[in-house]
Predict the structure.
Amino acid sequence: NTKQALLFELHLETNIFQLYEDIKERKYEISQSTIFIIEKPVKREICAADFRDRIVHHYIANKLNPYFEKLFIYDSYACRKEK
């Protein structure tokens, strides 16, 4: 429910097809991230990717996950399904 997500979803079909074409034609470029600092629970800097880039991140992660899953030790839990 971020502003970027809502703007992307406003013209979802057009944006998805444009993203596909950009990747296929090797024209895709990573956008500038939004950087901000949060204070709680501890002070830290956050780099948030553009919504369009996060779609690509999820696609890549879903494709690579089966390969990496075999390499992880059992007690590794971060970002793993059913862990």
